[in-house]
């Protein structure tokens, strides 16, 4: 026995002197790992149980062993032997670090940390250990030989730890080994080389004071990581059918797990793969230059540990909360969720499925067919819903490429983007003048844009589970809204759009895949039942054969209700408030577009692409309530039905009719004809009927520059157009322009006419009272029924002969003419001709001013009045071909007579030529014309009877033809033709 003991001692001494320095290196002065309570420590033989339940029942730590009590823990061993250096060889060896706890702490104690080395350990003290003396100095270092295990049961604030290493050195709160290590922490496990464990202690009060107790492990580091398997949270899998998943982590550099901070760091070509354990399907991968994995403890991890070692077999409580990756760029690829992300700084949380991207240049996120780029993005993936949550600050854009079944989509903004839940839906908000384009022809801009989205489930034929898709429910665009698309365009201060709920919507994503940022309607219809010329069918394509008619909507607030139609959306209702305008933009030349304007406008779809409109307008707006095909309507309230071509209006209003391009030889219409009323309007597409104090006004422009204005007043008016106004189509009318054809005013009518010279001076004012007036607008033909009467005030008188120029007073004289008739009135306003039929009476007198209107009795009492009677009176505006001067000519036919102060006459036909102040009297086969006149200075009157008599009233000259009798001092020409009766002279 003595020889054996001596041999063992020699072997241990050689090991301590030669092998230990080779393994651990040269001794270094370090702070003590563990110390005795007193400068000299005692170890004792014992069988007492210090930690109930910590060791198995057959463990040697519960039998006869030696115990070394230190401030930071308790060491156990069975055999020992000092070596030549005074160090102590022990075998086997177990070191227990039990965290201290207050007596009144109600929580279960944290499990101790246990280091076990069955192969023994070399203990180094600050003074040599002597054989036979069970006393040692301060412990400086412990070298655990062979296989070493480090264990800690699960506690309230810690997971179970099991680590297997070889030849471990324990010194100054560090546990190190250069050899391979395998470990498991809760549900996480890994392996590598060059282990460094830093123990968790509080700072010592002073170098000589007892060391504070070890409370656990601060960090675990592997200089070379072979692999790291992290248990995934239960909800990390994209689908419950994938079962349990795990994260496989590899890198070319170091791995450090800071348990105190609950985070792990990895360096150099780090890659994380998320696998399904059952199918080994790759769900996600993350590659970067550096990574930090942050863990969080589950909040329900309490009360599962009783006495030492009595932890419940629960899953890991330390779960992955977030992965922070740094790279150039860091790349996240998720085939299961169809997501790819790139950024210089990428944060990913498998628990709440949050992706945080930041980059000085731009980050990239591709979700299905949507591509997102911005300086930063925070995005939350969801598995049970197609829509996630997202936030981005700064300018960015989203793009979707075109496919054969859907149009390209591009959205960009300048300030921020948010995708968040709101009122049971999800709302996408874009700030900073966002712009949206769909296809090559549709653009949308506003200051801010909000789109509310909902998810619906649809069952595809042959599918075993429903497909989720995203559909818009409503949209709000704020300030500076502009829309440009093939079917709809416009501007508004604010825009609200509502999509019909509960109907079969058009497919937004043709693949049936879910999207996080809403896709738009594909816009390509095949076999739509709507008419090709529907002005309110919104489509995204501009393909040949599609409708090229477009409507423009402008206003302060535009509210649009949409309904699905095949693979597009159609407008169900449009409401515009504040400076409302709806205008048709036609691609066909020569077609006057439809335009509706008012303070409020509501347009409703009535099926088959047709609509009805309701407009509230204000006179102060100065814009037509409705304008189409050369017709303009103004009114407070207007309604329109596109299907029946019916337009109606209650209350006062105004209509304007554009003039025809044709003109008469003398004049043409100057500007539109205007109609005002007080009762209301009915329009069936071709006939406009208005009632209640109706006034129609139109103007003409003469070739010589003279102007005239005609105003007709009555109780009702019918305006017939040359063609029917078809609001349902943009096909050009036969005449290329829809114009007024005929104007009719039944009942009593007042007609006023003003005429001015090319210099703008008044020439005449006419006023007539008739019944049932009708006007052919293009030709100018005018008619009216009697009995009626009219008055006219005209400037100037008969032009003198060239040898006798007129005086200025004569040229400025005003003449008042009154005409009364029994049967009818007819003529042409463009040619300035007018006729009055049956029992016509004309009274002429002087007027003092332009408003010197007189009744019949007053005029008959005037000594200067001229009275003319007959059966038909014709007036015409005649232009001299030589002098180019125009004047009025007036002809009375049938029992014509005239009475004046200076002459009297009767004839079958009597003509007055204003330019010459000439009266022409003509008889017929039965009766001669008769003239009685007074010569200047003569005591009596002269008289003449003849077939034709011409009398120059101003000069007093007479010329006769076919004389029957003549009783006068001859002056002029006698023609014996005709009857051959010699004149009688005085």
**Share of β-strand residues:** over 45%
Number of helices: 3
Using the CA coordinates, give the radius of gyration.
Answer: 56 Å
Total beta strands = 61
CATH fold category name of the domain at 370-533: lipopolysaccharide transport protein A fold
SS class: mainly beta
| Head-to-tail CA distance between termini | 199 Å
Q: Report the sheet with the most strands, covering strand number, pairing sense and barrel closure.
A: 59 strands, mixed
Any low-confidence stretches, pLDDT <50, length ≥5? 1-41, 301-315, 503-547, 798-811, 976-986
Average pLDDT level: 77
- Helix share of residues? under 10%
CATH class of the domain at 370-533: Mainly Beta
Task: Tell me which CATH architecture of the domain at 370-533 applies here.
Answer: Sandwich
Please state the overall shape, judged from the principal axes of the Cα atoms. rod-shaped
Descriptive notes:
With 986 residues, this protein is mainly beta. Among the domains are: 370-533, lipopolysaccharide transport protein A fold (Sandwich); 868-985, lipopolysaccharide transport protein A fold, CATH 2.60.450. 3% of the residues lie in helices and 56% in strands. The protein has a 59-stranded mixed β-sheet that branches. Strands 1-8 form a two-stranded antiparallel sheet. The model is unreliable at 1-41, 301-315, 503-547, 798-811 and 976-986 (pLDDT under 50).
């Amino acid at each position: 026995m003595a020889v054996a003991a001596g041999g063992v001692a020699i072997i241990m001494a050689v090991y301590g002197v030669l092998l230990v320095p080779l393994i651990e290196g040269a001794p270094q002065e370090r702070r003590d790992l563990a110390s005795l309570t007193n400068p000299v420590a005692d170890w004792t033989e014992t069988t007492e149980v210090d930690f109930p339940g910590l060791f198995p029942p057959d463990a040697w730590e519960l039998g006869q062993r030696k115990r070394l009590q230190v401030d930071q823990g308790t060491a156990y061993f069975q055999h020992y032997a000092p070596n030549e250096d005074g160090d102590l060889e022990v075998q086997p060896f177990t070191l227990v670090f039990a965290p201290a706890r207050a007596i009144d702490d109600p929580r279960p104690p944290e499990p101790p940390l246990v280091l076990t080395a069955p192969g023994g350990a070399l203990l180094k003290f600050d003074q040599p250990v002597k054989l036979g003396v069970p006393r040692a100095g301060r412990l400086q270092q412990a070298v655990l030989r062979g296989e070493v295990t480090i264990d800690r049961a699960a506690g309230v604030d810690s997971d179970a730890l099991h680590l297997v290493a070889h030849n471990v050195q324990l010194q100054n709160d560090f546990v190190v080994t250069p050899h391979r290590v395998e470990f498991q922490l809760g549900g996480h496990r890994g392996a590598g080389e060059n282990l460094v464990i830093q123990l968790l202690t509080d700072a010592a009060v002073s170098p000589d004071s007892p060391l504070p107790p070890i409370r656990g492990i601060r960090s675990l580091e592997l200089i070379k990581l072979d692999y790291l398997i992290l248990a995934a949270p239960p909800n990390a899998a994209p689908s419950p059918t994938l079962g349990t998943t795990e994260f496989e982590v590899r890198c070319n550099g170091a791995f450090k797990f800071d348990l105190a901070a609950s985070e792990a760091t990895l360096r150099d070509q780090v890659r994380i793969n998320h696998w399904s354990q059952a199918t080994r399907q790759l769900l996600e991968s993350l590659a970067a230059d550096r990574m930090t994995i942050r863990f969080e403890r589950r909040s329900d991890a309490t009360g599962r540990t009783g006495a030492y070692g009595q932890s419940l077999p629960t899953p890991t409580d330390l779960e992955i909360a977030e992965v922070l990756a740094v790279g150039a760029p860091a790349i996240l690829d998720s085939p299961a969720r169809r997501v790819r992300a790139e950024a210089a700084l990428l944060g990913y949380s498998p628990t709440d499925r949050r992706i945080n991207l930041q980059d000085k240049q731009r980050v990239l996120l591709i979700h299905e067919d949507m591509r997102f780029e911005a300086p930063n993005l925070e995005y939350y993936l969801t598995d049970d819903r197609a829509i996630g949550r997202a936030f981005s600050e700064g300018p960015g854009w989203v793009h979707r490429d075109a496919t054969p079944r859907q149009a390209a989509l591009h959205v960009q903004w300048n300030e921020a983007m948010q995708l968040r839940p709101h009122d049971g839906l999800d709302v996408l908000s874009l700030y900073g003048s966002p712009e949206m384009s769909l296809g090559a022809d549709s653009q949308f801009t506003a200051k801010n844009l909000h789109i509310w989205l909902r998810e619906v489930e649809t069952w595809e034929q042959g599918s075993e589970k429903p497909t989720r898709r995203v559909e818009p429910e409503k949209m709000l665009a704020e300030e500076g809204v502009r829309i440009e698309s093939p079917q709809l365009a416009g501007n508004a201060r604010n825009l609200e759009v509502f999509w019909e709920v509960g109907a079969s919507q058009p497919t937004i994503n043709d693949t049936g895949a879910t999207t996080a940022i809403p896709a738009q309607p594909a816009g390509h219809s095949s076999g739509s039942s709507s008419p090709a010329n529907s002005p309110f069918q919104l489509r995204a394509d501009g393909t040949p054969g599609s409708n090229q008619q477009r409507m423009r909507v402008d206003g302060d607030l535009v509210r649009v209700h949409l309904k699905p139609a095949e693979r597009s959306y159609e407008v169900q209702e449009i409401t515009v408030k504040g400076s409302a305008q709806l205008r048709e933009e036609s691609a066909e030349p020569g077609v006057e577009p439809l335009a509706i304007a008012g303070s409020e406008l509501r347009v409703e779809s009535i099926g088959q692409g047709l609509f009805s409109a309701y407009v509230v307008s204000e006179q102060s707006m100065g814009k037509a309530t409705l304008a189409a095909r050369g017709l303009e309507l103004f009114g407070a309230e207007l309604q329109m039905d596109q299907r029946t071509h019916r337009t109606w209006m209650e209350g006062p209003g105004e209509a304007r009719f554009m003039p025809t391009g044709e003109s008469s030889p003398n004049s043409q219409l100057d500007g539109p004809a205007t109609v005002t009323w007080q009762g209301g309007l009915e329009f069936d597409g071709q006939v406009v009927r208005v009632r209640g104090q109706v006034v129609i006004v139109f103007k003409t422009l003469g070739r010589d520059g003279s102007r005239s204005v005609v105003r007709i007043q009555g109780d009702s008016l019918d305006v017939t157009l040359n063609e029917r106004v078809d609001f349902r189509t943009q096909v050009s009318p036969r005449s290329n322009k829809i114009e007024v054809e005929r104007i009719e005013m039944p009942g009593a009518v007042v007609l006023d006419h003003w005429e001015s010279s090319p210099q703008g001076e008044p020439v005449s004012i006419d006023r007539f009272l008739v019944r049932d007036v009708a006007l052919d607008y293009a030709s100018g033909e005018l008619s009216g029924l009697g009995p009626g009467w009219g008055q006219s005030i005209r400037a100037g008188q008969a032009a003198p002969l060239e040898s006798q120029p007129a005086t200025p007073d004569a040229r400025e004289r005003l003449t008042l003419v009154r005409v009364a008739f029994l049967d009818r009135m007819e003529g042409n306003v463009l040619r300035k001709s007018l006729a009055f039929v049956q029992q016509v009476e004309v009274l002429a007198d002087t007027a003092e001013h332009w408003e010197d209107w007189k009744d019949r009795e007053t005029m008959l009492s005037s000594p200067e009045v001229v009275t003319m009677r007959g059966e038909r009176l014709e007036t015409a505006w005649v232009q001299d071909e030589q002098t180019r001067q125009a004047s009025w000519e007036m002809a009375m036919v049938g029992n014509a007579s005239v009475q004046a102060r200076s002459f009297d006459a009767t004839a079958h036909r009597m003509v007055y030529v204003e330019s010459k102040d000439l009266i022409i009297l003509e008889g017929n086969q039965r009766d001669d014309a008769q003239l009685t006149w007074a010569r200047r200075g003569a005591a009596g009157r002269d008289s003449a009877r003849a077939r034709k008599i011409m009398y120059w009233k101003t000069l007093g000259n007479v010329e006769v033809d076919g004389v029957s009798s003549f009783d006068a001092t001859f002056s002029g020409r006698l023609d014996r033709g005709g009857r051959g009766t010699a004149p009688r002279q005085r």
